[in-house]
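Re: weekly structure request thread

Next one in the queue (207 aa):
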Amino acid sequence: MQGRDWVWFFLEKVQALKAEKIVWPDDLFTDYIWVISVDGTHCWIMEPGHPDWSQDSRYFSHKYGKAGVVYELGIALFTSRLVWMNGPFPAGDSDQHVFKRKGLRNKLQETNKRAIADGGYGGFPTLLSTPNSHDSKEVRRFKSRALKRHEKFNGMTKTFGCLSGRFRHGEKRFKTCFEAVCVICQYQCELENPLYDILIDGLTEDE
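Done, posted below.
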């Protein structure tokens, strides 16, 4: 095996740890209704081939202005853990579409749980809480901290070179790299750099 073959071999081994490290911990969520923050994170990729056109509009990322893919991530609100990872999907798929069609909506319904999301997830008021002008000051702050905390995890993944620039090795290998990076970031959260606590004095679970 050449050196690059060993690189992919070990990346796939790290990726395989997602079955152990990135799981939905039902036993930890029994005391809460609002359990995760959810967001889609875009990554830049080489323009996929299209049989008729030079570009495939399904992959257009509004965040990059170029071809990309998106992963849907869910991070536990009260523990420093990534508990949901789904993708990759063409970046042209909106956050709403991925949530509605690709699994997390059903997961929340089945477990009777709820999530905090940004304004791109409108239309699911019984499952997702988005920024709302009617929220109290404390609730607005709570949601803001949850979403900024989520962005911090997204930022951790982009410190890896394979995700910070244009990925050139195809969608299958992108999946390997992205999921391996998320596993490593989860270990970092557990061992050396936990995500900050979003609980605020005076804010109750009912609020």
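The chain has one domain: 3-191. The longest helix spans residues 137-157.
Next request, please.
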